[in-house]
Amino acid sequence: MPDTERWTTARSARDLGRFVSQARRRRGLSQAALADELGLTRQYVSEVESGAGNLYITRLFEILDDLDVDVRLVERGGSDD
């Protein structure tokens, strides 16, 4: 694996949101631009990045925690790839 590989272990919606925010910024995208590419609202992207856990994501992380499962987020290369 390259030395520049970016990854983290996500144990909460907040961890997930932080990783999404960093990946978006490394690609030079605003929240609005990312939202537009995905057909979402900027507000939704903002909520994801802030770690606002909806019931689904909160329960998912509770289940994973109870099962002693970690989620590893790995960035698949940059915009140059």
UniProtKB/TrEMBL annotation:
Superkingdom to which the source organism belongs: Bacteria
PROSITE patterns: HTH_CROC1
Pfam families, per the entry: HTH_3
InterPro entries, A to Z: Cro/C1-type_HTH, Lambda_DNA-bd_dom_sf
Domain HTH cro/C1-type as annotated: residue spans: 20-74
Name used for this protein in its record: HTH cro/C1-type domain-containing protein
Biological source species: Isoptericola cucumis
